[in-house]
């Protein structure tokens, strides 16, 4: 059964040599994918797999992808950054054309994408997976320049290593401060996993030191499971200051590494600022982002609600109940790929079901998860009621160890599927 | 005559195409491979689904859903799928190599 479609395509192109010149020329439908992260790379690969006759071009600015999931382990000194890095060779070998160029323009009317080198790619359908931009206009005192002093480390790579090296140079007895933004932002449990693994580093290497989270929220992802773990593992090394306790950072001063809230100034030895975010600039250029800065989509096809023939997957989208995670991005991309393949064949995409699974590593032998199952409802991706949720508080300790092992398995599996 | 033959061939090809789509992954199935590796070369403690007998997957999912089998995370995910949805996914995975 699985070879039927490939046989069909072979048969169709052989049988139709003369009367159907479009197929005879091998000029199948064209899809361009912008962004080579978990969402975009998955979409490109699965569209090509779904119908090898579709010409798929993946546009990505960087030749090497550095994964954000597990990059908190790099910050905590538990993992090498190289374990986070992947190339596009296998994707190219699967038949996808990989263009290592930034996408600089989208002409939605003329259906073409302009690249940094000035060349244009035409498309029948465009999949945008541009990820997020950090907002350099949202937190007074914090622009790209200050990120050299107070790293965000919210895009993995040099910033990850900078934060790690600042932790390594900090004297014992120092204070590390993480500023966490209001929702929505990439990787909702990320600041709390990061605080956990920094606390782990401090507890084992610099026990007189402490990490403080200053938060613009009163609630966060996997909150009770994190707080239970912190009480057990890091009672003297980690403190969370909520919005209502004065945690919202209003401005920063990089020259003194000071974070200012309504009530007081916090002086840090190491400051990690996770700034507010929005869909990356190319989404605004294409017109698929709305006034919130994010991209509304149809929950069956992931087609933009603002611009036809453009689909949006991953962190840039407004995905209803689905959080901005790598698992969500990969899950959405596979559904979007099937929808794009169906639409290009003149068929109606089926109503999907999606899953998100998100692991947080609190310590090397302590993992927790949040999971959800989603379906289209009233025009958005809604939680299937009764399913999903966070690792239960009364789960036995061995489950935490198992979840840490499964986290490692998840990373290998998803990066294998996308880049391997 | 050639034209007729081509039209017939095209009609057969189209019929096969719709059959091929019937064999596409049922709703929900695409997400599973985020954790259950499709490639045997990935080293993970999470068991593969490809080629696994559908009856086995269906009964495991039912046990996760009822709570008869304790999981770390599958108990929470299994609750999001009806028996029919689970069976369709399990049947599809059985056919994957």
Task: Give the structure's gist in a few sentences.
With 420 residues, chain A is an alpha/beta fold. Chain A is built from eleven helices and 25 strands. Chain A is globular.
Characterise this structure:
The complex is a heterodimer of chains A (420) and B (97). Chain A is α/β, with parallel strands linked by helices and 420 residues long. Chain A is built from eleven helices and 25 strands. In chain A, the strands form eight sheets. A five-stranded parallel sheet of chain A has the order 5-2-1-9-20, with helices on one face. A four-stranded parallel sheet of chain A has the order 13-12-11-17, with helices on one face. The radius of gyration of chain A is 23 Å and the shape is globular. The N and C termini of chain B lie far apart (41 Å). In chain B, helix 3 packs antiparallel against helix 5. Chain B has one domain: Orthogonal Bundle (Cytochrome Bc1 Complex, Chain D, domain 2), CATH 1.10.760.10. Chain B is globular, with a radius of gyration of 18 Å. The interface between A and B is large, with 55 and 44 residues.
Write the layout of secondary structure elements.
The complex is a heterodimer of chains A (420) and B (97).
Chain A: H1 4-15, H2 21-24, E1 30-34, H3 38-50, E2 55-60, E3 65-66, H4 71-75, E4 85-86, H5 89-93, E5 97-100, E6 103-107, E7 112-115, E8 120-122, E9 125-128, E10 132-134, H6 158-169, E11 175-180, H7 190-205, E12 210-215, H8 223-233, E13 238-241, E14 251-253, E15 258-260, E16 265-267, E17 270-273, E18 277-279, H9 281-286, E19 295-296, E20 310-312, E21 317-318, H10 326-344, E22 354-363, E23 366-377, E24 380-383, E25 389-390, H11 397-419
Parallel strand pairs in A: 1-2, 1-9, 2-5, 9-20, 11-12, 11-17, 12-13, 19-21
Antiparallel strand pairs in A: 3-4, 6-7, 7-8, 10-18, 14-15, 15-16, 22-23, 23-24, 23-25
Helix pairs in contact in A: 3-10, 3-11
Chain B: H1 2-22, H2 29-32, H3 54-66, H4 74-78, H5 83-95
Helix pairs in contact in B: 3-5
């Amino acid at each position: 059964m699985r070879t039927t479609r490939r046989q069909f395509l072979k048969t169709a192109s052989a049988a139709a040599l003369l009367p159907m010149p479009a197929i005879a020329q091998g000029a199948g439908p064209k899809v361009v994918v912008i962004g080579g992260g978990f969402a975009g790379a998955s979409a490109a690969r699965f569209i090509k797999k779904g119908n090898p006759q579709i010409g798929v071009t993946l546009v990505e600015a960087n030749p090497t992808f550095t994964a954000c999931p597990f990059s908190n382990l790099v910050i905590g000194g538990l993992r090498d950054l190289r374990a986070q890095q992947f190339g596009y060779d296998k994707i190219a070998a699967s038949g996808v054309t990989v263009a290592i160029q930034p996408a600089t323009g989208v002409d939605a009317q003329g259906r073409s994408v302009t690249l940094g080198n000035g060349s244009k790619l035409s498309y029948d359908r465009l999949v945008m997976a541009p990820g997020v931009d950090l907002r350099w206009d949202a937190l007074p005192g914090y622009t790209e320049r200050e990120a050299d002093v107070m790293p965000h480390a919210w895009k993995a790579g040099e910033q990850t290593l900078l934060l790690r090296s600042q932790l390594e140079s900090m004297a014992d007895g120092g204070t590390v401060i993480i500023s966490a933004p209001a929702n929505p932002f990439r990787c909702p449990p990320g600041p709390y996993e990061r605080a956990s693994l920094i606390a782990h580093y401090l507890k084992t290497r610099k026990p007189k030191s402490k990490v403080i989270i200053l938060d613009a929220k009163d609630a966060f992802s996997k909150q009770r499971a994190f707080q239970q773990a912190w009480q057990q593992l890091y009672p003297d090394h980690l403190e969370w200051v909520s919005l209502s306790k004065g945690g919202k950072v209003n401005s920063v001063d990089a020259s003194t590494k000071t974070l200012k809230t309504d009530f007081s100034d916090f002086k840090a030895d190491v400051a990690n600022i996770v700034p507010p975010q929005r869909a990356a600039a190319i989404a605004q250029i294409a017109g698929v982002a709305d006034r919130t800065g994010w991209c509304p989509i149809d929950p069956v096809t992931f087609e933009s609600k603002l611009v036809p023939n453009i689909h949006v997957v991953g962190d840039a989208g407004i995905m209803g109940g689905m959080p901005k995670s790598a698992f969500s991005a990969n899950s959405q991309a596979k559904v979007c790929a099937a929808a794009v393949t169906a639409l290009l064949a003149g068929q109606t995409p089926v109503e999907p079901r999606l899953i998100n699974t998100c692991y947080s590593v609190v310590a090397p032998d302590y993992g927790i998860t949040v999971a959800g199952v989603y379906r289209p409802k009233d025009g958005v991706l809604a939680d299937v009621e009764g399913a999903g949720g966070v690792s239960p508080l009364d789960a036995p300790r061995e489950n935490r160890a198992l979840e840490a092992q499964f986290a490692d398995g998840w990373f290998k599996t998803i990066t294998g599927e996308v880049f391997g | 005559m050639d034209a007729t033959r081509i039209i017939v061939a095209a009609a057969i090809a189209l019929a096969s195409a719709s059959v091929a789509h019937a064999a596409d992954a049922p709703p929900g199935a695409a997400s599973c491979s985020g954790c259950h590796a499709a490639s045997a070369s990935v080293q993970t403690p999470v068991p593969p689904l490809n080629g696994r007998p559908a009856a086995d997957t269906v009964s495991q999912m039912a046990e996760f859903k009822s709570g008869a089998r304790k999981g770390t995370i599958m108990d929470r995910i299994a609750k999001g799928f009806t028996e029919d949805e689970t069976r369709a996914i399990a049947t599809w995975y059985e056919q994957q190599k």
